[in-house]
Amino acid sequence: MKQRHIPQRSCVACRTVQDKKNLVRLVRTPEGEIAIDPTGKQSGRGAYLCPRPDCLRAAQKRKSLDRAFKATVPAEAWTRLEAALADRGERPQQ
Prior knowledge:
alpha+beta, Hypothetical Cytosolic Protein, Chain: A, three-stranded antiparallel sheet, two-stranded antiparallel ribbon, 5 strands, 20% strand, globular
């Protein structure tokens, strides 16, 4: 029986390659809003990040998301992302 292909993506902060389902997809919508995309299908420019707070801080320090989105990430977006990742980390993964 043929093995099923598992998509892999790399974290924009730490550059580790993991299964797509283990990473968080962030998206810059056509309107310019930056948000977490839980479905992975929202339209816009996407980037993947490990669900760890230290990866979010590294992405902010190195401006990894700015490069991935080809736009500057506003300060309020960083605080929303940090809060959303903290909430996500408290829930058990399915």
